[in-house]
Specification:
By secondary structure, the protein is mostly helical. The chain has 4 domains: 4-90 and 210-278, HUPs (Rossmann fold); 93-207, Rossmann fold (3-Layer(aba) Sandwich), CATH 3.40.50.620; 295-348; 356-446, Arc Repressor Mutant, subunit A (Orthogonal Bundle), CATH 1.10.10.350. It has helices at residues 17-32, 51-64, 94-106, 142-146, 161-171, 184-197, 227-232, 237-245, 260-266, 281-294, 297-310, 320-328, 340-344, 356-362, 368-379, 386-400, 404-416, 424-431, 433-446; strands at residues 4-7, 36-41, 88-89, 110-113, 116-119, 126-130, 134-138, 150-153, 176-180, 203-207, 210-211, 277-278. The strands form 5 sheets. A 3-stranded parallel sheet has the order 1-2-3. It has a 3-stranded antiparallel sheet with strand order 4-5-8. A two-stranded antiparallel sheet has the order 6-7. It is elongated. The mean pLDDT is 92.
């Protein structure tokens, strides 16, 4: 049996982190088994769906690197699809759904009531053989006991989720449905529809929910609930993919940092955990920092330059070797690429502004002659590398009878405008002799 799975989001606002993880689990399962991953946009509710929301979904999947394998051929297809496939849109498949409704009506499985069409639901308990949860016996609730039948076409003629979901799974030959545990109540209805159509249902795997750290359900207002948060705050998509895998899945050897190739090789449903996962934003930040530290240079430069450009910093005005050398001093110092504009922005501007409190503390009359002496010592150097700069500063500090920090702090402020940042001696080497002397001159002028 060739594995065929799908991700079927509703474009109603944003891509929830739970939805992103569902897409990821489906994608990994398909890639692990050499199967197909299908993207299907459930947009039958025209009043709630927007084109912008569709774009958010496609952009999010593209950012995560989740490509889909088939769909309608279209010259306008966008996103990480294979070939020129766009996603399936349910709004374009209405005739197929209505044909199936007629089949149900003719077979006596559905009936019209108050302008709508309802499906005749079995009064017996439904058994769900779930690949993650195990066997589930779904009894009718007290409310369903009174009327277990459910609407499949609204009075306005629009087919509803339960119907289109099942029809699409039949037409697209879906073999496995991997979705959140909150869909279990829907699955009994869907199994009944499959039986009514005379079709063997796919295998179901309901994955655990993602909760906040305190155990509460994650709402769209909670930090980290929207995938766009990670795109905006400078996370590496590969780190987010890695972390999302660990929310409800375990490789069984306590490993946490894994490449995409390793995840594909190791991911399967038997390792999906039964209990709900708790989202830890700080752990994700830590993992992102680990990814940055281990990242291949070209990938690091790509994401770093993008983050700087997003903040309005144009690195194209500087020689490429200079840009790379500047970014190299930051690689093991940041956890998020969004930190780079503040951390490294001084490399890419000639109009420094100083932190006010730091300037008041460091740019003092007492420090001026010391900084002037250091400026002259730097000016006399023929070799302007980190080791020489460090030795020069420490030698002068000894001559002045002060600790090195007395010179380090005003020098850092003069050359970066900040009190924290990359290693001082390495950043001075990258800035170069001419630029360092100019910045020291400007600081000395400010100090009077």
């Amino acid at each position: 049996m060739k594995v065929r799975v799908r991700f079927a989001p509703s474009p109603t606002g944003y891509l929830h982190i739970g939805g992103a993880r569902t897409a990821l689990f489906n994608w990994l399962f398909a890639r692990h088994h050499g199967g197909k991953f299908i993207l299907r946009i459930e947009d039958t509710d025209a009043a709630r769906n927007t084109e912008e929301a569709v774009r958010v979904i496609l952009d999010g999947l593209h950012w995560l690197g989740l490509d889909w394998d088939e769909g309608p051929l279209t010259p306008e297809a966008t996103g990480p699809c294979r070939g020129d496939y766009g996603p399936y849109f349910q709004s374009q498949r209405r005739e197929l759904y209505m044909d199936r409704v007629q089949d149900l009506l003719r077979a006596g499985h559905a009936y019209e009531k108050d302008g709508a069409i309802k499906f005749k639901m079995s009064r017996e308990p439904v058994i769900i053989e779930d690949l993650v949860v195990g066997e589930i016996k779904r009894q009718l609730t007290d409310r369903e006991e009174l009327d277990p039948d459910f609407v499949i076409v609204r009075s306005d003629g629009q087919p509803v989720f339960h119907l289109v979901n099942v029809v699409d799974d039949i037409d697209m030959q879906i073999t496995h449905v991997i979705r959140g545990e909150d869909h279990i109540s829907n699955t009994s209805k869907h199994l009944a529809l499959f039986r009514a159509f005379g079709v063997t249902p796919p295998k179901y795997a309901h994955i655990p929910l993602i909760l906040n750290q305190d155990g509460s359900k994650m709402s769209k207002r909670d930090k980290g609930a929207s995938l766009t948060t990670y795109q905006a705050e400078g996370f590496a998509p590969e780190a987010v993919v890695n972390y999302l895998c660990l929310l409800g899945w375990s490789p069984k050897d306590n490993r946490e940092i894994m490449s995409r190739e390793e995840l594909i090789e190791r991911f399967d449903l038997p390792q999906v955990l039964r209990h709900n996962a708790r989202f830890d934003y700080q752990k994700l930040v830590w993992m992102n920092g680990e990814y940055i530290t281990r990242m291949a240079p070209d990938r690091y430069y790509e994401l770093a330059v993008h983050a700087l450009a997003h903040a309005g910093i144009d690195t194209n005005r500087y020689p490429l070797p200079y840009v790379k050398a500047a970014l190299d001093t930051c690689k093991e110092k940041i956890d998020l690429f969004a930190e780079l504009p503040a951390f490294a922005g001084f490399y890419f501007t000639e109009a420094l502004s100083y932190e006010p409190e730091a300037a008041q503390k460091e740019f003092t009359p007492e420090n001026r002659p010391r900084l002037a002496r250091l400026r002259e010592a730097f000016a006399q150097l023929d070799t302007f590398d980190a080791a020489t700069l460090e030795a020069t500063l420490k030698k002068l500090a000894a001559e002045l009878g002060v600790k090195a920090g007395v010179l380090v702090h005003p020098t850092r402020l003069a050359c970066t405008g900040r009190t924290a940042g990359p290693s001082l001696y390495h950043l001075l080497e990258v800035l170069g002799k001419e630029r360092v002397l100019q910045r020291l001159d400007r600081a000395l002028e400010r100090m009077g």
